[in-house]
Design brief:
Number of strands: 0
Order of helices and strands: HHHHHHH
Structural class: mainly alpha
Number of helices: 7
Largest sheet: none
Distance between the termini: 11 Å
Length: 195
């Protein structure tokens, strides 16, 4: 892979889309980092702290599984799968109203998704743009992560303050996950401007 410098990478749609999906995913990450236990409690689940801890445990498993899979299959395809897992996780949350058993869908699918995503994005950046300028490029992508985390934590809090519920936040995450699948599918290996 010919390495792209920062200017060359910014000239590609793929880099912009990679930054966008990092921002989108980090909205969810930020919202859950600050509000997960209260969100789970809001859906009437017993032991929300335990369930959140288990989700974080599954994130470690997600890192290992998707890290191993990335050596053998498309990193972009795996990013799409991580969005699908996120979608399934929050669809499960929406179903908790009827039965608490759906919390396990959130624990497993969301846990795997966050582990997968944070592992795959650096690998995707290296795969698409090479490694010569990797630290600068991943730093820019990391800035999108910080902005997304900040946005998510504030957004979830504002929603809860306004609605006294996280239901709208869950619906927003489901929409973000569906959009994330589509945006990630548009990412292509860019042609190097030098050739």
């Amino acid at each position: 892979v010919k390495s792209f410098d920062v200017k060359q990478a910014f000239g590609t749609l793929s880099f912009k889309l990679t930054c966008l999906i990092m921002f989108m995913f980090s909205i969810v990450l930020g919202g859950l980092t600050m509000h997960a236990i209260e969100l789970i409690r809001d859906y009437g689940v017993d032991s929300p702290s335990t369930m959140w801890s288990l989700a974080l445990g599954f994130s470690v498993l997600g890192r290992v599984i998707f890290g191993l899979m990335s050596d053998k299959t498309s990193k972009k395809g795996l990013v799409v799968v991580s969005w699908l897992l996120l979608l399934l996780g929050f669809a499960s949350v929406a179903l908790i109203v009827n039965t608490e058993v759906f919390i396990w869908g959130f624990v497993i699918f969301y846990g795997l998704a966050i582990g997968a995503f944070v592992t795959l994005i650096p690998l995707l950046v290296g795969d698409l743009f090479g490694v010569e300028h990797f630290s600068k490029l991943i730093g820019i992508v990391g800035l999108m992560q910080i902005l997304g985390i900040s946005t998510g934590s504030i957004l979830f809090g504002r929603i809860y303050d306004a609605k006294d519920s996280y239901e709208l936040a869950v619906m927003i995450v489901i929409i973000l996950a569906a959009a994330g699948i589509l945006v990630s599918a548009l990412i292509r290996k860019p042609q190097h401007p030098a050739g």
